């Protein structure tokens, strides 16, 4: 009998506030969709960082007679200088075991010809113009500055290159977009919170006499609040389901069908990351429904 009353009261409440309920559903749908997209953006940036930073090598280019580096002095690197450079690199605590690879002029020229095989520039470059180099793999790609500082300026060293100087601006831009998406999602979640509060407040005010009578006859607070709670939870769940569906469609169409096929060099978010994001979205949606309902209806429980 009590269940029938609660369900009947829920149906009456939804009919009375149909337009407000639809507005709550749409707001939660949009806000959770953006929130889930921000969560996936964070996962994507982390995957890209892990994929690229683990492959980063420091390249130490040695002097030729035409080099202008501060360690060159217009002369070709000597064997003694190369031995000293290798010794400094191998003794650095950040260098990975067996992580030093030398590239001769001949090897560099062969790589150059493969890279620019269809370009006329190949015919204008000779093997003698190539630079010998050491390619260094680090134990931790994040700790690259110590090694760069140790070898920069050594006699025989022309330049030291690290891909982080090119990748960091990209990841900073991606992190900025991620923060912007989270801020926008947060504002929309606040808007959804306020809209749910207003909807419940209007519903409770319209039924204040019924609430007062139920309170006088001994109904518990939770029993009185339950129809309002179910109304908010139902709206939140519908919005969360729509948001989760939107996120899955986006990942399937944009990421799995297009991005993965076009940019195979990067690792992309998939089903596991999307599933985690949707779980968080549902939990956040339920919190948006439960918390404001209890806070809003509490003042109407006093006779």
UniProtKB/TrEMBL annotation:
Name of the protein: Cell division protein FtsX
One GO-annotated biological process of the protein: cell division
Keyword Zinc-finger: no
Lipid bilayer topology: Multi-pass membrane protein
Description of how the protein assembles with itself and partners: Forms a membrane-associated complex with FtsE.
FtsX extracellular domain: residues covered: 56-160
Principal localisation: membrane
Entry GO CC: plasma membrane
Residue stretches spanning the membrane: 21-41, 179-205, 226-255, 275-295
Source taxonomy: Bacteria, Bacillati, Actinomycetota, Actinomycetes, Propionibacteriales
NCBIfam families cross-referenced by the UniProt entry: FtsX_actino (NF038346)
